[in-house]
UniProtKB/TrEMBL annotation:
Chain ranges of the SRP54-type proteins GTP-binding domain: 339-352
Cell compartments where the protein resides: Cell membrane; Cytoplasm
Annotated keywords: Cell membrane, Cytoplasm, GTP-binding, Hydrolase, Membrane, Nucleotide-binding, Receptor
Protein name in the entry: Signal recognition particle receptor FtsY
Subunit and partners: Part of the signal recognition particle protein translocation system, which is composed of SRP and FtsY.
Bilayer topology annotation: Peripheral membrane protein
Family under the similarity heading: Belongs to the GTP-binding SRP family. FtsY subfamily.
InterPro entries associated with the record: AAA+_ATPase, P-loop_NTPase, Signal_recog_particl_SRP54_hlx, SR_rcpt_FtsY, SRP/SRP_N, SRP54_GTPase_dom, SRP54_N_sf
Substrates-to-products reaction catalysed: GTP + H2O = GDP + phosphate + H(+)
Chief localisation class: membrane
Gene3D superfamilies given in the database record: P-loop containing nucleotide triphosphate hydrolases, Signal recognition particle SRP54, nucleotide-binding domain
């Protein structure tokens, strides 16, 4: 997932590190390179391989290191010093101008929306420009932490569907919207499976009545999962099917209604009118907009469009498993101001991951939680 962007971000972080280290000069590397080493080995943190994004907690002072065979304490200390900021590090905007421009290029090349890339750059400046006093933290870690925080700010909070349902009156009515082929019906099946595993009962509504194949498709998913589906004939009014689905849920004490819809109609205006009618009739508690991560910026533009026209409460991004760029996943929440609820990560029913911003950033920066 997002491998292309991940590798580019690794390079960019190194560039930030170089630019900052160069600008800061010998101060960062050592207090005074020629001077005898004042610090005794006992007080120097143990050297650990520094991984991008791994933030060393300064308070944890490990056991004094046993000098390695064949290595003098001096060479050990100087190696540690080269990784550690020994005193206050002051970063000016000019110091990071070049890597910032490169970062923006990388973000745009990977389909991050322009306004979101601007926001990330502004956050990076906010995080980095100024003075840092982080004894025991390497320049690389200052950069990694800044990038981590900047990305977290644009990713938003996510949306915990299980908690939402727990705190909500039943049945919870979830309407799924989005254009054709993005994975709506598959995602409904996955959500049904996920919710049942979390202890909720579910009924599906076959609201894509535009073609017979769509009804057969959701019916087949429901059969395989052993979930009830309410369906009418091809060409019937989807609002009526979904009304019946809600009535069924009420009558049978079902916790959640998952309502499928058509992604296309005779024309766009008709589709929007149809969705508007469904909304009036079934009164959804949540409208989940589905789009595919691989569509990149197109997904962001469409999401904005659907949000403006029929409303959206949360977004599910499918096909994240096929997306090397990650631009839509990074941009969509900030662009439309609505959280991502799930990522679709494959074609199996288990390939659904609740969207946890911290986990996505860990994935992007190759770090542990
Ligand atoms: N690789 C991958 N394929 C997916 C994912 N979600 C859906 N698909 C596939 O996308 C295609 C279209 O899905 P469908 O549910 O019919 O889309 P709909 O027209 O929006 O209802 C199907 O072949 C699905 O198996 C996903 O997360 N990853
Ligand atoms: Mg469908």
């Amino acid at each position: 997932m997002f491998d292309g962007l991940k590798n580019k971000l690794k390079n960019i972080q190194q560039k930030f590190g170089h630019s900052i280290t160069e600008a800061a000069g010998p101060e960062v590397v050592a207090e005074s390179p020629g001077e005898p080493v004042k610090t005794a080995p006992e007080s120097v943190p143990e050297e650990k391989p520094i991984r991008e994004g791994a933030v060393r907690v300064p308070e944890v002072v490990p056991e004094p290191p046993a000098p390695e065979v064949g290595k003098t304490p001096e060479s050990f200390i100087s190696r540690v010093r080269s990784l550690v900021i020994e005193r206050e590090l002051v970063i000016s905007e000019k110091d990071i101008e070049e890597p910032l421009t490169e970062l923006q290029m990388v973000l745009l090349e990977n389909d991050v929306a322009l306004d979101v890339s601007d926001a990330i750059l502004a956050y990076m400046k906010e995080e980095l420009v100024g003075s840092h006093r982080k004894i025991g933290t390497s320049v690389d870690n200052v950069v990694a932490l800044a990038l981590r925080r900047s990305l977290l700010r644009v990713l938003g909070e996510g949306f915990d569907l299980v908690t939402y349902i727990r705190n909500h009156e039943r049945p919870v009515r979830i309407l799924v919207t989005g254009v054709n082929g993005t994975g709506k019906t598959t995602s409904i099946a996955k959500m049904g499976h996920y919710l049942r595993e979390n202890g909720f009962s579910v009924v599906l509504g076959a609201g894509d009545t535009f073609r017979a194949g769509a009804i057969d498709q959701i019916d087949e998913h429901a059969r395989r999962l052993g979930i009830k589906v309410i369906q009418h004939k091809e060409g019937s009014d989807p609002a009526a099917v979904l009304f019946d689905t809600v009535e069924y849920a009420k009558g049978h004490g079902i916790d959640v209604v998952l309502a499928d819809t058509a992604g296309r109609f005779h024309n766009r205006k008709n589709l929007m009118n149809q969705l508007e009618k469904i909304r009036r009739v079934m009164k959804p508690d949540l409208i989940v907009y589905v789009d595919e991560a691989v569509a990149g910026n197109d997904a962001v533009v469409r999401a904005r469009d659907f949000n403006d026209l029929v409303g959206t409460d949360a977004v599910m991004l499918t096909k994240a498993d096929m997306d090397p760029r990650g631009g839509a996943a990074i941009s969509i929440a900030q662009s439309i101001g609505k959280p991502i609820v799930f990522l679709g990560t494959g074609q199996g029913y288990d390939d659904i991951v609740p969207f946890r911003p911290a986990a996505v950033v860990d994935e992007l920066l190759g770090a542990e939680a």
